């Protein structure tokens, strides 16, 4: 590209960034960490949280909580009937889950990649907050020992029950 065209393109880029800044358009998407911390303190948006240990052969559970509070749990049993539960979760309970995600630093992958042993599967967690997304996983058989993704799963399952007095 000729030098004069590069200068022109750079000028257009600078002008666009200045216009976006003047219009209040954020220059950078907040991280999952920042978005979760904001949600836990009462800000918006609330996170989308999806837990899944579903396996094509053995079935499993998938739990999702939408930013709007829509809750859904699907349990698939390859030997019998599947089960679905749906509910609506209020914002205060959703924010408590966001606080747990911040406490656990749930946006950080902690388990290292390695080859799976026979019949070993993963449980995963997907977090979407605003435009940011993070995905982490652990070996299913290690969930109890690690007490990280398992705590999120248990907290999600507890959202099925109506909040007590």
Any overview of this molecule?
The chain has 165 residues and is α+β, with helices and mostly antiparallel strands. 34% of the residues lie in helices and 24% in strands. The protein contains five helices and six strands, in the order H-H-E-E-E-E-H-E-E-H-H. It has a six-stranded antiparallel beta sheet with strand order 4-3-2-1-5-6. Strand 5 and strand 6 (132-139) form a beta hairpin. The protein is globular. It starts with a helix and ends in a 7-residue tail after the last helix. Residues 1-7 and 13-20 have low confidence and may be disordered.
| Terminus-to-terminus distance | 69 Å
Number of helices: 5
Rg calc: 21 Å
The succession of helices and strands, N to C, reads HHEEEEHEEHH
**Sequence stretches where pLDDT stays below 50 over 5 or more residues:** 1-7, 13-20
Helix/strand-derived category reads alpha+beta
Helix proportion = 25-40%
In short:
The protein has helices at residues 3-22, 32-40, 91-103, 143-146, 149-158, and strands spanning 48-52, 60-65, 70-76, 83-88, 122-129, 132-139. The chain is of the alpha+beta class and 165 residues long.
Itemize the secondary structure elements and their pairings.
Elements: H1 3-22, H2 32-40, E1 48-52, E2 60-65, E3 70-76, E4 83-88, H3 91-103, E5 122-129, E6 132-139, H4 143-146, H5 149-158
Antiparallel strand pairs: 1-2, 1-5, 2-3, 3-4, 5-6
Helix pairs in contact: 2-3
